[in-house]
């Protein structure tokens, strides 16, 4: 019997050509028919790499030398790139990202905010800032341990005026201080004006939101009444309501209140506040609906997916920003008799390996 060809040693050096970027942001090359996942590379890179441990049917690889660079490589913006672990794609040319994802007004404001930081945060202190472009223009949420004094509030009021911000809110623990509100802050979702609580969840970009809404509408089709689980501010609720009755369920107190306020003049929409992680809608409660949509946080929707799996609902559309927890929840649905009809990936998270997806399940 001929001996089998020995597998490359874990410490072996091999030459690879990167072909594409994978779901986790690594460049993917092939060695002896197997994928090799090579971080911080771009398609077209030719590298000498050290093979590492096995991963998802392939091997990890680490670059020892870059022999030739592929097109689309650029210098990272942050000096901590590659070490902090937060970003995976800053080495890519961002021209394509600017066309699809980047919001120029927010990036311009970051520089202005950085220049004013020393007037807002005490020496040695820290704060987090969240910028959101709403339909009322830019909303700024600052979160810090200390409450702002009068001088800080005056600085922020001038900043809001100079930069034409809609609102600045300072959050310290459970307390929120509206420093300045120059316009009522709202977002338009399928033509419905929804009050925007500071720091509330929205999709990362309008173009991605449009794609996801289209996937939900085409997946649900005419099936009504429909159930919108983890409804947030109503991204899918109000779009679905164009075709019939929708019941929206959301766990966050302020988000549910904003959704209910917006739905007050929408006769086809009802709203319920419910913690679906602790108290999912049971199969008996699901029986009245023809279709369900769920869009949970990154932790997924395990209890609710289990209830859906034993329900009689014909169509389920799942939205997820975490393929790993989606796979777990999808397995529950398939185990309960659903057929996975299609999955649509939506790449909307700048410089990261994260991926949004929409999936349609039918009985």
Descriptive overview:
This protein has helices at 95-100, 104-120, 150-163, 206-220, 237-240, 253-263, 283-286, 302-309, 323-335; strands at residues 13-17, 20-21, 27-31, 34-38, 46-55, 58-68, 128-134, 137-143, 167-172, 175-181, 186-189, 192-195, 226-229, 246-250, 269-273, 291-294, 315-320, 339-346, 356-362. With 363 residues, the chain is an alpha/beta fold. It has 3 domains: 13-93, Beta Barrel (OB fold (Dihydrolipoamide Acetyltransferase, E2P)); 104-184, OB fold (Dihydrolipoamide Acetyltransferase, E2P) (Beta Barrel); 187-362, Rossmann fold (3-Layer(aba) Sandwich). It has a 7-stranded mixed beta sheet with strand order 15-14-13-16-17-19-18, with helices on both faces. The longest helix has 17 residues, at 104-120. The protein is flat, with a radius of gyration of 24 Å. The termini are far apart. The model is unreliable at 1-10 (pLDDT under 50).
